[in-house]
Amino acid sequence: MVVTCEQMRAAEDRLFSSGQAAEPLMDLAGYRCAEAIRNTVLGPGRAVLFCGKGNNGGDALVVGAWLRKWGWQVDVRFSHPLDQTTNLACKKYREFEEVPDGAGGNSTVLIDGLLGIGAKGALHGAIGNLAKDCNEWRLKFGAITFAIDIPSGIDGDSGEPYEGAVVADHTLSICVPKRGILDERSIDHVGRIHQIALPEIPVSEGDATLEMISPETLRPHLKRRKFDTHKGTAGRVAIIAGSKGLSGAPTLSSLGAINSGAGLVTVFVPEEIYQIVASQAPVEVMVHAYSDSIEEIKNHRADVFAIGPGLGSTINPDILDFATSWKGPVVMDADLLNWISESDDLLNQFPAGKRLLTPHPGELARLADLSGTGDRIETARTLAEKWNVTLLYKGARTVVATPGEVTGINSSGTPAMASGGMGDLLTGMTASFVGRGMSLHEAACTASWCLGRAAEICPPAVTASQVARQLGPVIDALI
To answer: What is the Cα–Cα distance from 43 to 126, expressed in whole angstroms?
Structure first.
């Protein structure tokens, strides 16, 4: 569920009116935020708390106290004198001061606890000055900024960044996501979103047609395998990809499939690049060549086909016809989508509910007129409904839309993923999850999050091949 600021406040008011005290919830939220920081940043290190006069500052002080207990060196900067700060935040400051400071380390973390979700308008005065310092220190010292619940200066409902807004690398979204942090306008201020579970607050109102993709939403789909599982029942994935000069695409797609747990992966490539692909593909992958005839492809036994990466600009009508008419599930990507965009009305001829399209913005613009379609979420929903497909709309905040399903917004990833081959890898991963028994929607959500998470734990210079090697540990951690 995704909520407005008013819906979140209403849920808290209902809880507090029932007799629940605010302090235990602050302590719990602060501890879980501190855990998320510790799990993200190699530490102990140095942390600076930027605290406003409200309870958001109290949350930051709880975080700081836990970091001190774990050996961090923690300093605090207040926007207002303590006598202008809420009683609860003052109490948390006294508790923070009672914890001996740690020795610290090389990492520097900035924690934005200036404003809560209800604040609106440009930042000014003491709050504005601290927000400016936070942003400048982030750049000057290479610090990592964590925002508690929402970056200060971001509208919690619309996502509009007001003047002087904090630029966070990570946002610790408490309880449930607020609509504003999922909006495309806030992406560069929100960064990576971490869901901080707080089920103690019963949220009953909100937009139940949207959800943030996270480990909690994915685990029900990643079922543990039965002991007698064998390669033939673990998913038979077939990939049609590659062309002259684009021989890496089939290899990367097969890496995505094989490292996501597919039992059998077969790659079909044009005869002219067979030797290249056969020599560079994972040894576990079977590589087959096709020429004028695609009879072997048509007769191949597969649970799912992935078609498109690196096919090139020259349309092969037989492959295009097979991709649109085959009765089983097909993951469509890259050049196949470009081929479809040049043909009349193919988007309305797919078998119902059997196609997963994975366009980036440029490919989607070629498939549809995007003028007047609204934001990314509404665009994905509208087109998925129109074409009766699952649409994985790639981007910094990937959207997964399927008619009749809750629209997923991906939370994982890093700017270091802006390199060639990530989409090829994603195509193979998505097909693998379909082959393992997931629905197209479940597979798209799972592949999107796992790809982003695998990139997060890679070395700073991220390549698709490096990300592929991290997929096993990421998927294993979810099961």
So the answer is: 30
